[in-house]
Design goal:
The chain has about 475 residues and is α+β, with helices and mostly antiparallel strands. It is built from 16 helices and 16 strands.
């Protein structure tokens, strides 16, 4: 039987109506999911923060539950392939575009199919991250029913005898550690013991999120390199695995292609967040910072200690030998400011993770366009509809600007339109032509309403950080 005939016999996906809320947040309302990790064969590990019978969430280390669930990696195709994809289960989607859904029982079968499709130069849509594919198909998202303070966040900052981990003498002098559950401490001593104690402390505190300022560019790579030198396992994953580095990619700071390269660090069951990267996106519109160093951020955003210790980076090792207590104070202040900076700048991406089908650590570094794409692809798959292909670019008239007057203008009364662009799009029904499911404008209206309500509550509710983070994520 040929491939086309086989596909013609495959079932048509059932047509399902999708509300704007389901489109934005996914159809599965499961709460307190804190991480999703593929096991790279036939399953997916889901991690949950437990909830007590009285409804109060447990924050203590160890109160995390995990379960293994099946999932099928998938590839979207425009046409059925003219060659076999072993073990593939095909489903036809209604409409034009990516209208053939191929699902696979194992990760190895999916990888083999992906290579065959790529080598044949077939137009396709898929994602390399198993967690993203699984969350898209399940309708689950992380952190539903949770606030930013409900997750356990762990910060660390290292002081070293040199900036490169390669020379033998460039040892780690100390590691300052803290979390949002009251921890503030230093790990000192023999370097091998420092690394062992650090890994043990992460396992003990069992954080959902690991934060640091330039933690991807310096702290984590340095710790990992020194761990290899001393043959120490950095087994801080929730499954007992070591931290590992990924492939270099770009961090999307703002629209228009403004990016910065970085190398992600992955820790199974936990999310790694670099505040040095996040603050660049946070400050893009404000332009309040002259640099993105931790001390500058603390001063500008108003949480620097009055007696803040500042030491020249190239003199840390000498000062530590002569006056170790001064360096200890400096390190404690560094890690404390990292925690405070994360509390200020990270809630936007945290609450976006309640909508975007992806792990938090990936949402933080992904551009808004890709986040929106993921939300809409999820909705179309849930509805059994084909996903539109990318349209070729075409020229269009640019915006019109007219300068009526220049110079210093006196007696100006500010006029501001709340949510101007969404209001124009809703009023004039401006939406993608390829939105055959008709969810763009309802979702935009829902987001706009939610954002304005959150802004109003941020101005009056005592829990300003929650509402401000929420409105920022909707924006």
């Amino acid at each position: 039987m040929d491939i086309m005939t086989t596909l013609d016999m495959a079932p048509m996906a059932p047509q399902v109506a999708i509300s704007s809320e389901e489109a934005l947040f996914g159809r599965d309302r499961t709460e307190c999911l804190i991480a999703a990790e593929p096991d790279y064969e036939e399953g997916l590990w889901l991690y949950y923060r437990e909830v007590n019978q009285d409804g109060v969430r447990r924050h203590e280390a160890g109160q995390v539950r995990r379960e293994r669930v099946p999932y099928k990696p998938w590839i979207l195709l425009t046409e059925p392939p003219e060659f076999p994809l072993p073990d593939a289960e095909f489903t036809r989607l209604e409409g034009d575009g990516y209208r053939v859904l191929a699902e696979f029982p194992t990760q190895s079968a999916y990888r083999d199919a992906r290579f065959r499709v790529r080598d044949a130069h077939l137009s396709n849509l898929t994602y390399p991250g198993g967690a993203k594919m699984a969350l898209m198909r399940s309708g689950k998202t992380l952190f539903k029913g949770m606030t930013f303070d409900d997750v356990t966040r762990f910060q660390f900052d290292i002081e070293t005898d040199g900036l490169s981990p390669e020379p033998e003498n460039n040892r780690i002098l100390l590691i300052a550690v803290s979390d949002n559950r009251g921890l503030l401490d230093l790990i000192e001593g023999d370097e091998r013991e420092i690394l062992q104690q650090f890994a043990a402390l992460v396992r003990e505190r069992d954080p959902d999120v690991i934060e640091g300022h330039n933690v991807l560019g310096f702290d984590f790579p340095f710790v990992m390199a020194r761990a290899i030198r001393h043959n120490v396992r950095l087994d801080i994953g929730r499954d007992g695995s070591d931290a590992r580095a990924g492939q270099e990619r770009n961090y999307a700071i703002a629209a228009g292609g403004n990016t910065r390269p970085f190398t992600p660090i992955y820790v199974h069951g936990r999310h790694v967040v670099d505040t040095y990267l996040v603050v660049q996106r946070f400050d893009w519109a404000k332009q309040a910072l002259t640099s993105y160093g931790l001390k500058e951020c603390a001063r500008v955003f108003g949480f620097a200690d009055a007696d803040r210790v500042e030491l020249p980076r190239d003199q840390i090792a000498r000062i530590y030998r002569d006056d170790p207590e001064l360096v200890r104070t400096y390190a404690r202040q560094d890690v404390d400011e990292t925690r405070k900076l994360a509390e200020l700048i990270s809630p936007i991406e945290f609450y976006q993770t309640q909508m975007v089908p992806e792990n938090y650590g990936q949402v933080v570094v992904t551009g808004n366009g890709e986040k929106i794409n993921a939300i809409f692809v999820r909705a179309y798959l849930a509805a059994g509809r084909a996903v539109a292909r990318t349209q070729p670019p075409k020229p269009y008239a640019g915006g019109y600007t007219e300068v009526r007057k220049t110079g210093v203008l006196d007696r100006i009364a500010k006029a501001d339109v709340e949510s101007l662009y969404p209001s124009l799009m809703l009023t004039h029904k401006i939406a993608p032509q390829t939105d055959t499911l008709g969810i763009f404008l309802p979702a935009l209206r829902d987001l706009t309403t939610r954002r304005l309500e959150a802004k109003r509550k941020a101005a009056t509710d005592p829990d300003i950080h929650y509402w401000d983070g929420l409105q920022g994520s909707f924006k």
